[in-house]
Write a structure and sequence with these properties.
The structure is a single chain. By secondary structure, the protein is α+β, with helices and mostly antiparallel strands. It is 32% helix and 23% strand. The strands form three sheets. Strands 1-6-7-8 form a four-stranded mixed sheet. Strands 4-3-2-9 form a four-stranded mixed sheet. A hairpin with a 2-residue loop joins strand 2 and strand 3. The longest helix is centred in the N-terminal third of the chain and has 19 residues. It is flat, with a radius of gyration of 22 Å.
């Protein structure tokens, strides 16, 4: 990697069309888990104009009004302003439901039971795939700086919008932050891009001053901002039509925003709308938990973990760790892998137990990244001592 470079990451708000879709999908998942912790859920959502379309597979004993769940999710995001303000409104959207039950062929591979052609009676992975987890000591959240800075901007924007402090803000928004590195150390923020939906009666100068002074300067480190930092605020000049009225949204289309902003690798699987039998969600969370504890234990400054699974099979087909030459105490990566395997079980059923995932916690994860937020079980630092003991540290 070059000794001097810039790296950018983006975030999107909860009102962005793709995030509207994610939040609806996770709201349906949580509604199932509220009544039935053994629900199998794969809920996909499409939003466009004044329509919401649900598709996927759900097997559950939970009984609830899906339309009510969808409308409440939209209302919580903020698409409930006067009805002449936006065609996408919680009370008026048309909802099309094409959800069916989970395929029995998939169920027999995932369920903890013996069937012909399956090598084990243990719970298997819900699909094949590769998952990554990442942690570093760059920020207090143990996440890459660029993505966390981008998230902070939009969280602040949402806070100001929902409090009523600014009446011209609307739910759709995007941010992007470029961070400059010299010899692996952050020196400054090179540029910040923010686009926020707004009402038609506010001028661009007002928006620009507000975003820079009351949002960016409030949440980004002052020592990284300078007179040379470039601010690109609503660079098209106008952003009145937004959300599903302006663009279609699909579940799972913001996987880089959801993870490490492009800094850490991604296996390709989306998260929202999936119960934890789907390892592309649960194992990605698990890998983040493992990587974060490895870095917190002082084993290395950077940890990227990859695991792979085969559908219906309980053990990972491979486990790989990359520490980017930051290992300490004379350790090697194979020794770290062995310690990880001693402390953590990577079997899908054990992942669910270790992180207590069969409960309605998923709407908390949907917006502003699935990682780096306190309170989520995969953000715990509760295996640090066990890892140190396994490595005799």
């Amino acid at each position: 990697m070059a000794s001097s470079f810039k790296f950018s990451s983006e975030s999107v708000s909860e009102g962005h069309p793709d995030k509207v879709a994610d939040y609806i999908s996770d709201s349906v998942l949580d509604a199932c888990f509220t009544q039935d912790p053994y629900s199998r859920v794969a809920c996909e959502t499409l939003v466009k104009s004044n329509m919401v379309t649900l598709a996927g597979e759900i097997t559950t004993s939970a009984v609830f009004d899906v339309n009510q769940v969808v409308r409440q999710a939209i209302r919580e995001i903020g698409y409930n302003t006067p009805k002449d303000d936006d065609v996408f409104h919680a009370d008026d959207v048309f909802i099309n439901n094409y959800i069916t039950r989970q395929s029995p062929d998939i169920a027999q591979g995932v369920d903890a039971r013996a069937v012909e052609g399956k090598d084990t009676d243990e719970q298997g992975a819900g699909d094949q795939g590769i998952m990554f987890g990442y942690a570093c000591n760059e920020t207090e959240e143990m996440m890459p700086a660029a993505i966390m800075f981008a998230h902070r901007i939009l969280r602040k924007l949402a806070e100001l919008r929902k409090s009523g402090a600014v009446d011209w803000l609307r739910p759709d928004a995007k941010s992007q932050v470029a961070v400059n590195y010299e010899n692996g150390v952050i020196t400054h923020i090179d540029n910040v891009v923010v686009s926020t939906q707004h009402t038609a009666d506010v001028d661009h100068a007002t928006i620009r001053e507000f975003i820079i002074e009351q949002v960016i300067r409030e949440v980004l480190p002052a020592e990284l901002l300078s007179a040379e930092t470039q601010y690109l605020i609503n660079p098209t000049g106008k952003f009145v039509v937004g959300g599903p009225a302006g663009d279609a949204g699909l579940t799972g289309r913001k996987i880089i925003v959801d993870t490490y902003g492009g800094w850490g690798r991604h296996g390709g699987g989306a998260f929202s709308g999936k119960d934890p039998s789907k390892v592309d969600r649960s194992a990605a969370y698990f890998c983040r938990w493992v990587a974060k504890n490895v870095v917190a234990a002082g084993i290395c400054d950077i940890c990227e973990l990859q695991v792979a699974y085969a559908i219906g099979y309980p053990n990972p087909t491979s486990i790989h760790i990359e520490t980017f030459e930051t290992l300490k105490n004379g350790l090697n990566e194979q020794a770290v892998i062995e310690a990880i395997k001693q402390v953590f079980s990577f079997k899908p059923a054990d992942i669910v137990k270790q992180l207590d995932l069969l409960r309605p916690i998923y709407r908390e994860s949907t917006n502003y990244g699935h990682f780096g937020k306190p309170g989520l079980p995969w953000e715990q630092l509760n295996k640090v001592d066990a890892l140190k003991a396994a490595l005799n540290l």
